[in-house]
Amino acid sequence: MYKDYFGLAELPFRIIPDPRFLWYSEQHLEARDKILYHITESAGPIYLLADVGTGKSTIARRIMQELANDDKKQVVSVFAPKLTTSNAFLRFVMDEFGVKTDRAYSSSLRNFENFLVTQHEKHISPVLIIDEAQNMTRDMLLLIQHFFNFSTNTEFLIQIAMFA
After folding, report:
1. Is 124 among the domain residues?
2. DSSP code of 114?
3. pTM of this structure
4. Assuming Cys at both sites, which of 2, 82, 113, 162 could form a disulfide with 133, CB separation 3.0 to 4.6 Å?
């Protein structure tokens, strides 16, 4: 009915967060710019917390699209991480980045750190975007905090943007 009435080629008002239909309000633009600044400048983790239906997932998808063409970024996204343990979360993230996991949690962490150091040496910045981050357990959040121990004297080896 809307397509015919307004002469639209397709429906823009769906529940799926399609970044093609993102309209930047002042607040959306500010959020996008701050997130991209943190990712680009290796300024540490950034969190976007807002009410349901305000465009967080759409902004996350748009940022992923914008970073996808950047040869110096390796972008991985996690949607609604309802994993039961921090080990499961670590293994999922490592798999998404293409890093070999190990049976021992500490060995997996070491493998991930080695991967981050290698990427840094290649001037590639791994970026982890977590949407629906409110589903993360306390232990998963502590793991995210641990990821920021992987750094040089001047920058973090992984960039993380969390949307909740």
Report:
1. yes
2. H
3. 0.84
4. 162
